[in-house]
Write a structure and sequence with these properties.
mainly alpha, three-stranded mixed sheet, 5 helices, about 10% strand, extended, transmembrane, transmembrane helix, Membrane protein, AB_hydrolase_fold, membrane
């Protein structure tokens, strides 16, 4: 019986040692991977104006005090500033058919009847049965919000698609950059 316990103790020590060494190896690999990613991210091309431009967003306190109409007014101002400071200031090399900030591109939101990347309200035909608020800007695209809003509208609901501040115009807005 003593021999059995001694064997278990020895096996446990070996397993513990292997786990410790394995954990250190995994941690070292993770550090090397992250260092490589950081290095590679710094070697890429320079950021464009639309990556770094920042609109005059409402603070959390301002949003808490604002009406939806005031929120929409600020959104309108931000898009006017974006138009003036980014779209109208694009250098020639950025004026491509697939740049959403280029006024004559195929994907410029201003050419469409509705810019679904902005906040909106869809009213149902007839008396509303209720309301639904859909938030755009964390894990979805504006087009999925539009699709869901239209489904609710068809079922008789007022559908409000509210875009989170910073997500309207640039990827960096999501992280506060």
């Amino acid at each position: 019986m003593k021999h059995l316990f001694r064997h278990w103790r020895t096996s446990g020590a070996v397993i513990g040692s292997l786990l410790k060494k394995g954990s250190i190896a995994v941690l070292a690999l993770l550090v090397v991977f992250l260092a490589g990613r950081i290095y590679e991210s710094q070697r890429g091309p320079a950021l464009h104006r639309w990556h770094t431009w920042s609109g005059n967003e409402m603070s959390a306190e301002e949003i808490d005090q604002a009406t939806f109409a005031q929120y929409l007014a600020r959104e309108k101002t931000i898009f006017a500033d974006l138009q003036r400071e980014v779209t109208e200031a694009l250098p020639e090399e950025d004026k491509t058919p697939v740049n959403r900030f280029y006024r004559h591109s195929r994907v410029w939101p201003g050419q469409f009847k509705q810019d679904w990347n902005r906040s909106f309200v869809l009213m149902p035909l007839g008396k509303p049965r209720g309301g639904v608020v859909l938030l755009h800007g964390l894990t979805d695209s504006p087009y999925s919000v539009r699709y869901l809003a239209q489904l609710w509208q068809q079922r008789g609901y007022v559908a409000v698609g509210a875009a989170f501040a910073g997500t309207w115009h640039r990827a960096g807005g999501v992280n506060g950059g």
